[in-house]
Write a structure and sequence with these properties.
The protein is α+β, with helices and mostly antiparallel strands. The chain is built from 10 helices and 4 strands, in the order βαβαββαααααααα.
Length: 227
């Protein structure tokens, strides 16, 4: 059986992408959680992951002797191993677009991701209003995200970006959670997509797990001093 190493569900957006993809696609896997303590070389997290992965990071997928230590590489590997799940769109043009927007989410939107740290449990709408007011890079990232989602939803008719659930939706799931946590302003049709993603069974299962953790790490809490 596949083994997927992840960090804390409340904080680890990278882990969320791979976990949600497997869970929503109905692909069996064994979850291996390595909780964050710090990212210093001698932390339990780093010592555990350095023994398993060249990067010492999560997510990490292990399939027998095969190890994949990047979320996008994990998605591509899973799509190859389970072609019947149709995790990419079947149409060539749509598939190219899905790969493009997924790769863009994987490496881009840095202002939004840096300012709005992943935190499923928290209500950070007050911080979100200040971020929106003071950080033009966040506004620019969200405007581009809205334009991308609107174009794809109009083109493919929803309910997900390419009609059916795909890798692209799994990769955008963490930013949907950020929009909710920080109360970022989005148009009604985009808010509806955010809600549909958050209601996916795989995403709901992740959110339930995040709410059950009851961990509080100051390194991941720039806006709060307590839970």
């Amino acid at each position: 059986m596949l083994q997927l190493y992840i960090g804390n569900k409340n904080y680890s957006s990278w882990s969320m992408r791979a976990w949600v993809l497997l869970r929503q696609a109905g692909i069996p896997f064994e979850e291996k959680t390595v909780r964050f303590d710090s990212f210093e070389p001698q932390s339990v997290f780093k010592r555990t992951m350095n023994a398993l992965s060249p990067t010492g990071t999560v997510p990490l997928l292990i399939d027998g002797e095969v190890k994949i230590w990047d979320s996008l590489a994990i998605a591509e590997y899973v799509a190859e191993q389970f072609p019947e799940k149709q995790l990419w769109p079947q149409d060539k043009t749509a598939r190219a677009a899905a790969r493009s927007v997924t790769a863009e989410m994987h490496s881009g939107f840095t202002a939004l991701r840096s300012a709005c740290i992943m935190n499923i449990e928290a209500d950070l709408a007050d911080a979100g209003r200040i971020i929106w007011r003071d950080k033009p890079g966040v506004r620019k990232d969200l405007e581009h995200l809205i334009a991308t989602w609107r174009r794809l939803l109009d083109l493919h008719g929803g309910p997900m970006l390419f009609g059916a659930f795909s890798i692209a939706d799994a990769f955008f799931a963490p930013v949907c959670c950020r929009i909710k946590t920080y109360g970022l302003p989005v148009p009604a049709e985009i808010a509806a997509y955010v809600d549909r993603v958050r209601q996916l069974p795989g995403v709901q299962a992740w959110i339930t797990g995040a709410l059950a953790e009851h961990d509080f790490f100051t390194m991941d809490e720039p806006y709060r001093v307590q839970r």
